[in-house]
Amino acid sequence: MARTPAKDAESTDVVDSLSTDPVHPATGDDIEDVTGTGGRPAIVADATSGHGVVPVQTRNARFSSTDVADFPAVTGREAVWKLTPVAELQDLIDGDLDGGRYDVETTADGGASVSWVGRDDERIGTAGIPEDRAAANAWSSFEEALVVEVRGEEPSAATVRRAALGAAPRAAHTIVDAARFSKSVVVLDNAGDARLAENVEILVRDGADLTVVTVQDWDDDARHVANHFARVGRDARLKHVVVSFGGGVVRVNPSVTLAGSGADGELLGVYFADAGQHLESQVFLFHQADHTKGRVEYRGALQGEGAHTVWIGDVLIGPDATGTDSYEQNRNLVLTEGTRADSIPNLEIETGDIEGAGHASATGRFDDEQLFYLQARGIPEDQARRLVVRGFLASIVQKIGVPELQERLQEAVEAELAGEARP
């Protein structure tokens, strides 16, 4: 197994590999059973001294459970929490959550439908289960799940809009179930006030083509912690898009498993952090089956004192994922002083027979040559800067494939740059 972390650096194709079992750092002995709790490093005692700490060696080996009691208290020192303002999310991580139904606006056409189901629905838990305490708290608390079902081979669409959740801590569970050979776009649109911990399960059956867009356009003081679990079947395709513009602290973590031969996963993200905002995504793409294709691309802009973004990308190419083609990248554009962008891509490869894989990360300011080029053609500096930012983020926005949403996001970018309220 090869693990190649990188930060603020470029990495081209990676095809080297591959030791097998992890070994104890002191003794060199094989470690056959490595487990951890709550996303913390696994602790393996040295056989002679009783000491020694070995981290979980593979990304999909993290401890998981649907019971919040199985996870230790979060201190903020854990690897999965150390870049997050834990104190501002404590009620969602540890507190009592209202897991009942909530007001939701839905539209659906073609073969799409929206309904509520009980906790005994057989689909619950099939896409993935929590790996951290906040996700487990939401899972332990929800009473009913909102299900978006897609059936039939004709293109269809569904929108779920939540804009009246209120300020009380709440849990939610959503399932998006795309039947075999279906083709659909599902938009999960969030606005207003909220203190929300939720899990979203996405099932893409064999041959299906599904786009899921989650929009975080919350009020400035909203707090939102979400985990998305997706499982993509044989010759199926998932485009998953995370859009984060609003909210005080927003953490949306997608985990996508390409489980069937020929599965395709495109994970996109776009975000704009203003003063005091914390916007975070920890992305995991698991190439489990052979001849799968993965693309991860997140782009963000930051402006204002205390604007903070976190992107952690993990790609794992499993031992059976021969013929894999994978690439992940993150780009951040810093517009003012006083901002912070954490960007950490990671790549693990457990087979040497792949088409190619790589990762990249870059964070920087405006390109002076671009600004000079535009100003030399009579465009004022402030307008030139806005054009550069729009173009930088548009490469993601234009891939969403929902024209009305793309237009709305472009308007939101303009409003952010102008310091106005988002439309």
From TrEMBL:
<dbReference type="InterPro" id="IPR055346">
    <property type="entry name" value="Fe-S_cluster_assembly_SufBD"/>
</dbReference>
<dbReference type="Pfam" id="PF01458">
    <property type="entry name" value="SUFBD_core"/>
</dbReference>
<dbReference type="InterPro" id="IPR011542">
    <property type="entry name" value="SUF_FeS_clus_asmbl_SufD"/>
</dbReference>
<protein>
    <submittedName>
        <fullName>Fe-S cluster assembly protein SufD</fullName>
    </submittedName>
</protein>
<feature type="domain" description="SUF system FeS cluster assembly SufBD core">
    <location>
        <begin position="171"/>
        <end position="392"/>
    </location>
</feature>
<feature type="compositionally biased region" description="Basic and acidic residues">
    <location>
        <begin position="1"/>
        <end position="10"/>
    </location>
</feature>
<comment type="similarity">
    <text>Belongs to the iron-sulfur cluster assembly SufBD family.</text>
</comment>
<dbReference type="InterPro" id="IPR037284">
    <property type="entry name" value="SUF_FeS_clus_asmbl_SufBD_sf"/>
</dbReference>
<feature type="region of interest" description="Disordered">
    <location>
        <begin position="1"/>
        <end position="40"/>
    </location>
</feature>
<dbReference type="InterPro" id="IPR000825">
    <property type="entry name" value="SUF_FeS_clus_asmbl_SufBD_core"/>
</dbReference>
